[in-house]
Amino acid sequence: MKLSIIIVNYNVRYFLEQALLSVRKGIASPASEGGAARGTPPLGAGEADIWVVDNNSVDDSVRMVQEKFPEVHLIANRDNVGFSTANNQAIRKAAGEYVLLLNPDTVVEEDTFEKCVAFMDAHPDAGALGVRMIDGSGKFLPESKRGFPSPWVAFCRTFGLSTFFPKSRLFNQYHLGYLDEHEIHPVDVLSGAFMLLRRSALDKAGLLDEAFFMYGEDIDLSYRIKLAGYQNYYFPETTIIHYKGESTKKGSLNYVRAFYQAMIIFARKHFTGRKADLFVAMLRGAIYLRALLALMTNGWKKIALPLLDGILIYAGLNFLKNFWAVYHFHDPGYYNHLIVYLNFSMYTAIWLISVWLSGGYDAPGNLRRLVRGLLAGSVLIAAIYGFLDSEYRNSRALILLGAAWAVFSTSALRLVLHFWRHGNLHVGRTRQSNLIIVGGQAESDRVRQLLYQAGATVNYIGKVSPQEMADARTFLGTLRQLGEVVQIYKANEIIFCSKDVPIQDIMRWMAQLGPVIEYKIAPEESLSIIGSHSKNEPGELYTIDIRFAIADPVNRRHKRLLDVLLAMGLLLTLPLHVLWMRRPAGFVGNVLKVLAGRKTWVGYHTATAREIALPPLAPGVLSPLTGLQTDRLNAETIERLNLLYAKDYHVEKDLDLIWNGYRELGYS
Predict the structure, then answer these.
(1) How many Å apart are CA 662 and CA 582, to the nearest integer?
(2) H-type helices in 29-100, by residue range?
(3) Under a CB-based contact definition with an 8 Å cutoff, are residues 350 and 380 in contact?
(4) Are the C-beta atoms of 100 and 197 separated by less than 8 Å?
């Protein structure tokens, strides 16, 4: 066996499918043009094998691999054992002369394996090889080649010197920005996203260190390969797409902590004395600094709009108070000063919370959710107003005027922000991309059908033929005319059909047209269309898979609110309910568990939710099967009822099930 390809997967089913399709092509395709002349034989089915290690994904990845890729050796773990451990599981079983560690969110060229194996065969000093990587917009990923971390390298990276001086040999030793991205270089560190390893070098250096759970294992292994007397090579004569941001949000606290903790493990393992102490101290400082920046950035993103809304509403209420006092009462000092600190603060808080509950901050451009929340808040304020002591009931007019101002000011704020970002006033309207599909007649029609079924909002311009000749009545042009077609029709989104267009051509056009276009790839026979326009953001996805209402943040928030309010109400009126319950002791326990978030009043029935990859819920006291004779239902019916509950969820469903199953609230 010449090559063993190992992919560790965790909840990126659609990207895994695309990666495996490209790997399958790379193994089965004939040698690239001119390859035979260079003595580069194709890698046939008998020369390469594929291993997928799944770390307990809940997105149906395992079933997808079993059904669509029967040739793949699948290891399905029952826990998330981490990147290093999972790779080692497959390395121990694989028999290839070369072992390739490949991320699931990658796409390889048809001749990537041929070129890489040929280079390794020709360079016996090469222990490992990495390739040129680009993101989903065609931009070069600097982590394709890296230097070893050191206190100075860590300092430059932490404080952004490597970003400010990307080509500097002094300041950018981490990403080796001074080395040409299109030339072959010996380098210190290769990326674990694509790391081709010589088996003999791996045997000498050892497997991946399982102390590294998710990050740093590639740095450690690269370092040990060099210690074993081999060289690591950066090989840009083939390029892969690496859709970054799929497993971890790069700005999240989890990423900051995991990355720098991995660096600390590396420093303690390979450095000693003063150098190690200095490095660890710097890394710990970097953790706190980056964590603080992440907290501030993420926190500001969450509170910026509510804060601006609150300032506008509160300032408007103060203006209305002064205006109404003069206009209606002819007395500038008519209102008690307490109204400013007590009433207006309460009104503003209620309006903001109501907008949040209505989902107005989940979708800031949705004015319907905004107005719905403000109106609901106004009704609540009016109800509370009636219970206030006469000293604090200053004026109903201010509530009405304040509600009108809240609707006007917050809507106007969103109009201004939208105009500033997009140059138009179409708030709440999804921007329609001018879409071109590159592919043959059959695949283009299939992609259009997928887009329709997925509910994608695009302005379909037409299709471009991958052939040299094309019927002008059917196609906008041919692949070699793609640049002209994009310019003429002002296209800003392109979907490539990978069945008809080689990956090399896709990457060439991505590089030529640049990141102003959004690119997606439609893998053959797949029900998804995948792309990513930024290395720091999760990929975009068009898929016709079922969309679950229970996964919507607003519905989840309403469900949790119902759980808490009902649990509190039941707890306050406990004596009235205990006598009616079939299991009083269990009822009290369930109320407390629901309050603590360990249970929900209505959840899925048994473990079938795990099998069909439904959005996760806490264990339910009741289920969609409440009131039915479950012993007469088969597994398929139970799964279908769970699926319908998740797909069509609304809070009224829970209320109905709780009402019908009231006496069973004590069961676990």
Answers:
(1) 10
(2) 61-68, 83-93
(3) yes
(4) yes
Whether residue 269 contacts residue 162, with contact meaning beta carbons closer than 8 Å, is answered with no
Can you read off the two tokens belonging to residue 131? 């390739």
Residues in the chain: 668
Domains of the chain by range and CATH? Answer: 3-145+181-245 (3.90.550.10), 248-428 (no CATH), 433-543 (3.40.50), 549-664 (no CATH)
**Three-state SS at 187:** strand
**Residue 220: alpha-carbon gap to chain centroid:** 27
Using CA atoms, how far residue 63 sits from 5, 58, 59, 77, 616, in Å, is: 20, 10, 9, 13, 18
**What confidence score (pLDDT) does residue 533 get?**
64
SS3 (DSSP) at 459: strand
Instruction: Round the average pLDDT of the chain to a whole number and report it.
Output: 85
| Integer Cα distance of 138 and 510 in angstroms | 5
Of residues 34 and 309, the one with the higher pLDDT is: 309
Phi, psi dihedral angles at 456 (to 5 degrees)? -70, 135
Rg (CA), the chain: 30
The pLDDT tens digits for 356-409 are: 998 899 888 889 999 999 999 999 998 888 777 766 676 788 899 999 999 999
Handedness of CA 428, 429, 430, 431 (dihedral sign): negative
144 neighbors 131 (Cβ within 8 angstroms): yes
The sign one gets for the Cα dihedral 455, 456, 457, 460 is negative
Residue 181 in contact with residue 140, Cβ under 8 Å?
Answer: yes
Q: Of the candidates 5, 2, 195, 32, which has an alpha carbon nearest to the alpha carbon of residue 111?
A: 32
Q: Which two tokens stand for residue 647?
A: 């797909």
Can you tell me the distance from the alpha carbon of 647 to that of 637, in angstroms, rounded to the nearest whole number? Answer: 15
Q: How many helices (H) and strands (E) does the chain have?
A: 23, 18
Tokens of 371: 């107005």
β-pairing, 185-187 vs 458-465, is unpaired
Number of Cβ within 10 Å of residue 69's Cβ equals 18
Return the beta strands (E) in 154-245 as ranges: 185-187, 194-198, 231-242
Mean pLDDT of 132-154: 86
Q: Six-digit token pair at 199?
A: 């088996």
Q: Are 601 and 654 in contact (CB under 8 A)?
A: yes
Position of tokens 């695309």?
A: 18
Encoded amino acid at 398, one letter:
L
